[in-house]
Amino acid sequence: MEKIQLKAEVREDVGKKPSKKIRNEGFVPAIVYKEGKETVSLKINEKELLRALDTKAGTNVLIGLKIGGGDKDSKDSKDKSKDRTVLIKEVQHHPIKDRILHVDFQEISLTEKLTLDVPLVIKGQAEGVVKEEGVLEHVLWEIKVECLPADIPEKIEVDVTSLKIGDSILVKDIQAPTGVKILNAPEQTVVTVKMPHVEKPVEEVAEAVTEPELIREKKEKEDLEGEEEKGAAPAEDKEAKKKEEKK
Known about the structure:
The chain is an alpha+beta fold.
């Protein structure tokens, strides 16, 4: 993976007020950290940072931080000002304005393997979609991998051309690039082609809704007629008995 060079300056003042001042001057507050080492506070030119992020690698871009500033006579500042190879771990954006508020960098070693997420990109058109009018469902959009920094892939492509309705591609079907190990569960679904969704005509929907009502009304009518017939029989027997008594 290509390494992007980015200038940064050590900042001594931290907190909300100094950070706001830095942003007003066209810089972005940032920190760089590594396990077991002191976190270093930085400021980076906003335009240069945006250019560094505007690559095919996205937030997985490998960055060479050239750090300057600080007190040149201080041993602590000299330690902070050394160049570092980093990855972007978090970018905080303003909730309304299209601006970056803060960036967290993680210092890495080019000889130590990393664990990170890489985008999964669909390639081709599925046969089940083109010929059978099926629906392609993209289930997994990122995949977790382990590799050396130099082997970080910008993306991993998934060819869906041969998929028919009912077919799926699982994690175990993906061919990882050289030097890259996939960490997701092998049986996890990446993409699948489903039957097309067919909507019923309005007339059929209305019929389906009203039919149970009609059946209920018919049953109630039959039950009522049955009750009336049962009630008429005793009355007729009583009238016939009266006629017999008069005789």
